[in-house]
Amino acid sequence: MLEVTGLRVAYGGIQAVRSITFHVGEGETVALIGANGAGKTSTLKALARVLDAVGGDVHFCGEKISRIAPHHIVRKGIALVPEGRGVFPRLSVLENLHMGAFIRHDSAEVERDLQRVFAYFPRLKERAGQLAGTLSGGEQQMLAIGRALMSRPKLLLLDEPSMGLAPIMVQKIFEVVRAVAADGMTILLIEQNAKLALESSQRGYVMESGEITLHGESAQLLDDPKVRAAYLGE
Ligand SMILES: Nc1ncnc2c1ncn2[C@@H]1O[C@H](COP(=O)(O)OP(=O)(O)O)[C@@H](O)[C@H]1O
Ligand SMILES: [Mg+2]
């Protein structure tokens, strides 16, 4: 579904992503793990066209998307849940969710998807009328994922959904990520929490200083001595 070839991202003279190649198949959850500063967010931003890559190609469902306008990305079926969530603080939970469906005109289907999001995250239903800015960090993460799902994407890009959250909340969020995947969603999951990401994915890529240094089946990466030493604190 997603084919990334030789992708490079730079900020002025700083090379953040140095020619990486990876793919995500339809229905897969693929983890991209790595330490802070490895280039994970820059990769995701380039895929979502939030920033311009300086080199490489991105194909999505067979179509080259590496140069399309950023506002076309959602229409192509890619939804980004950014680092730090990016919910609209002065809008209610319900309004935020409807913003996720702004490109859609199938209101009966939108309503059905809204109920599906509420089924994944009952907390959002309880807080539907509350301003998003007054939600806890974990609830905002739920809302950001719910809002992304409201565009009915083919591919969900998640940037560190566990960041800054209490362990119990991280468990809740990941239960839903796995449920969304089990319902057929294709997911590219970016995480510093390597254990959680590898336990929630079929394949994984390890990123270090802008390069992919290891890749394989997630279960094998979890057993890999280098991964264990560098990312699992062993
Ligand atoms: N807006 C920016 N301007 C300059 N350098 C940046 C910017 N964003 C990120 N970087 C640099 O790019 C590298 C990769 O950052 P990032 O993609 O955010 O990594 P990660 O998400 O893996 O923590 C880091 O060295 C970071 O300092
Ligand atoms: Mg990041």
Automatic annotation (TrEMBL):
Q: Keywords assigned by UniProt?
A: Amino-acid transport, ATP-binding, Cell membrane, Membrane, Nucleotide-binding, Transport
Annotated protein name in UniProt: ABC transporter ATP-binding protein
Q: Which residues belong to any copy of the ABC transporter domain?
A: 2-234
User: What InterPro entries does this protein map onto?
Assistant: AAA+_ATPase (IPR003593), ABC_branched_ATPase_LivF/BraG (IPR030660), ABC_transporter-like_ATP-bd (IPR003439), ABC_transporter-like_CS (IPR017871), BCAA_Transport_ATP-bd_LivF (IPR052156), P-loop_NTPase (IPR027417)
Query: Is Cell membrane a UniProt keyword of this protein?
Result: yes
Entry's Pfam families? ABC_tran
Q: Name one GO molecular function term.
A: ATP binding
Q: Which domain of life is it from?
A: Bacteria
- Provide the family line: Belongs to the ABC transporter superfamily.
PANTHER family registered for this protein in UniProt: HIGH-AFFINITY BRANCHED-CHAIN AMINO ACID TRANSPORT ATP-BINDING PROTEIN LIVF
Q: Could you confirm whether the keyword ATP-binding appears in this record?
A: yes
